[in-house]
Design a protein that fits this description.
five-stranded antiparallel beta sheet, 54% helix, 5 helices, alpha+beta, elongated, Butyryl-CoA Dehydrogenase, subunit A, domain 3
Length: 196
């Protein structure tokens, strides 16, 4: 039977796995066209991080304009993209850190610090986008921030959680490395009559 607590050496790959999941969600957010969509039919508006598209209800083709023509569009894309690149670097560093036999805990804490930087960049991009989009782009009908935007926030939430774990992991250094013996608690029958 394998017992695996929060901080054990056998479970060291959970944190890099979570970072990999955050990268996948970040890729979906960067590539997805569902940052903003029409809430109900006829679907006349959709937007990604990079462009905004509209069409008339009876048309088949979308008319798209680049959001990179706006300063806020470039800022939102740049901050989210910089956060994503740092996230990929943190993933590579985490794989290296957990691959070596002697884990360098200060190195792990540094990865946690970088993940907080990633979260800050991504949050800035995710806040700039809806605020400025609704101010500068003419919205047609009822719209909602949709699935790709949600994947951006999901990636950010996973990054924040991993950042806390990476920063706190050195506090459990002995448990992670297996340098501590388990503690067994035993009560004598005189002190615990209910055990008889």
């Amino acid at each position: 039977m394998v017992v695996c607590g929060l901080a054990c050496w056998r479970c060291r790959w959970l944190l890099p796995l979570l970072l990999g999941l955050a990268i996948i969600m970040g890729i979906i957010a960067l590539a997805g066209r569902g940052w903003l969509e029409s809430e109900s039919g006829p679907y006349v508006q959709q937007a990604s991080l990079w462009e905004s598209c509209t069409r008339t209800p009876d048309a088949l083709n979308w008319n798209c304009e680049s959001l990179m023509d706006y300063g806020w569009g470039r800022a939102a894309a740049a901050t989210y993209l910089v956060g994503f690149v740092i996230l990929v670097i943190c993933f590579a560093l985490a794989v290296i850190a957990f691959s070596i036999e002697i884990l360098r805990f200060n190195f792990v804490r540094g990865i946690g610090g970088l993940l907080f930087v990633v979260a800050a960049f991504q949050i800035i991009g995710l806040v700039i986008y809806p605020v400025k989009f609704t101010e500068d782009i003419l919205l047609i009908g009822d719209n909602m921030f949709s699935w790709a935007y949600g994947f951006g926030w999901a990636s950010t939430v996973v990054v924040i959680g991993c950042a806390f774990f990476f920063c706190c992991l050195p506090n459990w250094e002995d448990e992670v490395l297996g340098n501590i013996k388990p503690t067994y608690y035993y009560s004598s029958p005189e002190r615990a009559p209910y055990l008889n």
